[in-house]
Design brief:
- It is built from nine helices and no strands.
- The chain is mainly alpha-helical.
- The protein has a domain of 141 residues: Tetracycline Repressor, domain 2 (Orthogonal Bundle), CATH 1.10.357.
- The longest helix has 27 residues.
- It is elongated.
- This is TetR/AcrR family transcriptional regulator.
- It comes from Vibrio tritonius.
- Pfam families: TetR_C_13 (PF16925), TetR_N (PF00440).
- Keywords: DNA-binding, Transcription, Transcription regulation.
């Protein structure tokens, strides 16, 4: 019997993007295999597994694509030509705008799509956690640079200070899904940046 392959005109990159949006919108476990196959052009089971291996492997590939997209958002954090404060603000502002983009699901896939998985899907939780950890580490490096460049006090608890901004970043997804506007979130961002300014005022 001939092996069932992909349908004609199958664009794998386009399929990954469509699957990514579905996982991003609904989460890993609520997204059924039937929904994925339908979204990807009514693929047969054989064609789906031939193309992607498994639902888990497809999610991991989608998450990797999403994190590649996020590299542009995180780029200011690594830009040493900017002050650390300016870098932090720019990254958070760009993230707010991206998560509100009408062309993609709202919020952050790494925050929303891989939570509350059952025991059989803990690998999904770990993959999502690792993705979030990458962003947290970029925030830590930015705060550390602020200390090293004497923008922040040398007494700054770098990890705790970075966690404040990381918590704001993760919370954006919920607020945006609940209908928060660009104006409201920008005001909140301006407010949280006063924490940086107040800490900077305590330079020795």
């Amino acid at each position: 019997m001939a092996r069932v392959g992909r349908p004609r005109n199958f664009d794998r990159d386009e399929a990954i993007t469509k699957a990514m949006h579905l996982f991003w919108e609904k989460g890993y476990e609520p997204t059924s295999l039937a929904e994925l196959k339908a979204q990807l052009g009514n693929l047969s089971s054989a064609s789906f597994y031939a193309a992607f291996g498994s639902k888990q492997q497809l999610f991991e590939e989608c998450l990797a694509k999403y994190m590649t997209m996020c590299e542009a958002l995180n780029q200011p954090l690594e830009d040493t030509s900017m002050s650390a404060r300016s870098a932090m603000y720019a990254m958070l502002k760009k993230t707010i705008e991206a998560q509100l983009d009408s062309q993609t699901p709202k919020g952050c896939m790494a925050v929303l799509a891989g939570l509350n998985c059952d025991d059989d899907n803990q690998a999904i939780c770990r993959a999502s956690e690792q993705a979030r950890h990458q962003t947290r580490q970029a925030l830590v490096r930015c705060v550390q640079r602020g200390v090293e460049q004497h923008e922040l006090s040398e007494k700054t608890d770098v990890l705790s200070f970075a966690m404040v901004f990381d918590s704001f970043l993760k919370g954006l997804s919920i607020e945006i899904r609940d209908g928060a506007t660009l104006a409201t979130l920008t005001q909140a961002l301006d407010f949280i940046m006063t924490m940086w300014d107040c800490h900077a005022c305590r330079l020795d």
